[in-house]
Design goal:
Helices cover 34% and strands 28% of the residues. The chain contains eleven helices and 14 strands. The structure holds adenosine-5'-triphosphate (ATP).
Length: 309
Amino acid sequence: MQATSTPVIEFDNVSKSYRSKVALTGVSFRVPGGSIFGCVGPNGAGKTTMVRLILGLLSPDTGTVKVFGSNAVDLSVLDRRRIGCVLESTGIYNNLTVRQNIEFFARLYGTDGLSDKISIGLSDLDMEEYENQPAGRLSKGMKQQLAMRRAMLHHPEILVLDEPAAGLDPIHQKETRDLLDHYRQEGHAIFLCSHDMSQVERLCDMVLFLKEGNCLAVASASDLPKRQGADTWIVRAVSRESMRTLLTKLDGRYRVNGSKDSNQIELSIPAHEEAEFLGFLSSEAGLIREVRRVVPTFEETFFRLMEDR
Ligand code: ATP
């Protein structure tokens, strides 16, 4: 299912401080239904503060946080039931069995079709064999999957996840990814905070980059590397001699990274200088064998953004 244009979560110029500590400054974004919206940033960037604002646990100091078109703090009980969440602590009761955990949360979300919900919850998790074991004995990965299923039992239209795959092995990470991808395809929206760049890149339709409470960029994972900062270009000359000639002409005009001792060099060219750079290269075409642009990876772009500002 495609993302819908109507936003289910909207931040408009939101700022939030805890006494003198500024956690968010003028953050704006929209999350359409049927999409996965990622939020990445170093420790203390303000991700959990955003989650608390979405869940209506905090009010913004300035700006508005809307969920389903209403102020998040004023959401009705019925509308709150349209949201599911998994926070840093899983919220799973270790002393209850797996079945009792699912039973407890299924009851909390309404008793209609309770036994169906419990069996679906258990079979989806491949957990029938564990159903009578205390949840505390599950591995970290299984507990995390149980928490995710618990949050999805009532099919919330928005799923809010704060670090859902932290510390999971690659198999459980893939399972989590497949689960979330499937959930999006059913038309639900997911707000995902994570430090796992590869998970975010593979899953999210849009990503917000946060640093010290400031929004540095909101972009799709595939667009972002192309749009941010300087691109790296590889230029290979026809010979060492041609490269020496080329270097004297390049000198001072463009930044050459690393070694200048072979017939290949690497340059950083800001987007606004690209046309001029390509013009320069075509005027020296006789010296050049190959020109290649290297688009940075999503993770490299993240580090670049975090270092730059
Ligand atoms: P992490 O990745 O480490 O979980 P985060 O991006 O979720 O961090 P937040 O927990 O939102 O960041 O914190 C943002 C800033 O606000 C940090 O500087 C943090 O120390 C501060 N902060 C968060 N909660 C409180 C609080 N209750 N009282 C005072 N300061 C707080």
